[in-house]
Task: structure prediction
Amino acid sequence: MKKEIITSRLTGDSCIHVKHSSGLDIYISEMTGFSNVHALFGTKYGSINTMFKTAEDTEYTTVPEGIAHFLEHKLFENEECGVFELYAETGAMGNAFTSFDKTCYLFSCSKNYTENLRILLDFVRKPYFTKENVEKEQGIIGQEIQMTNDNPEWRVFFNMLKSMYHNHPVKIDIAGTAESIAQIDADLLYKCYNTFYNLNNMVLSIAGNINADEVLAICDELLKPCEDNGLETFFPDEPDSIVQSEIREKQPIGTPIFHLGYKCRPLTDSKEKVKKFITASITASLLSCKSNEMYCRLMNDGIINNSFECEIFDGDGYMSLIFSGESSKPEEIRKAVVNEFARILRDGVCEKDFLRIKKSSYGDLIRQLNNVSAVAGLMINNALSGIGTFDIIDTFSEITSRDVYDFIKSDLTEDKLVLSVIEKAGE
Result:
């Protein structure tokens, strides 16, 4: 077992990283003075991982869309009882989620954290799939898929992704389709579980009122050595171009909603990836902050409202900068955003605005270090993304206004822009 202390060179905050004898990466943050505990047990396995092989395989295996999400659902059910019943007895709140590139199981509690940690490590390591319980889950998830298909916010987002990406599986709905989940059986679930739930592909993150030695003792007791299976994932080649620049759909909603996204060039080098993420985040904030002239004009003209926001969406082989919100004139927003980036390239990035946004964004990150769930999330998200725990915080000081300018010039070009709109039905 290899143990190290990871410390931020800028803030002095630290956490413990252990490469456990089982193969699991464990991140522990002992947060003195806090009463609660938050833990996540996750695997680098999400909806985009539809093609893979191990060292024992000669060819890649292709699995149905939505199987990672399906597997997450099934792990909460074992031969004896449901996991939520176990958490109810200890007073913990348990949950799980599947995203594009990860699946995590978690709990939050203010007492009995050692018992809850045992529950977490135990049930995730005990899959139980049968023909009967798989068929039952197909019906449940089928209803969930129908609900998301009727959800305007979900539709506007995935319509944008499908208009952006030609081949990358990020355009696939996380839950799959009714047709794809119908192909899932117990054997496929076991294959995916044994491949991606190998402890060498997983991370445990726990923060709050805890003792590191107690956490490690429980891991020693419950986790046995697991041989690395040599997992490889595959993604098809993705061109830089978009599929189409605009997509519209009608649904019974009160106010039209939109997503305006730039398809950016993803990076693989961890240091450059962190730098680009921060640069993109600052760039987004420059346009979406309330002091921006474009923002104020659109707000005063009633083209946008307080729902207007921007986010950076990135992962293995994909990255985009996305503006979203409610508007009956989304084409005016597209025009304004394009013109604003053109103005910045013409006049340069305002150094005063850049420094203000940079300091504000850095401050938001620092405040998260005083939140137990945020710290646990920071540790596992960065670990599963292949970057250091404090890399984002420590890289902030290196970002300059020139980085923002270069990012706008190279990635935020009009030919990479997609507008997705959900309009009011009947109009």
User: Anything to note?
Assistant: The mean pLDDT is 95. The radius of gyration is 23 Å. Residues 131-149 form the longest helix (19 residues). Residues 97 and 104 are 6 Å apart (CA to CA).
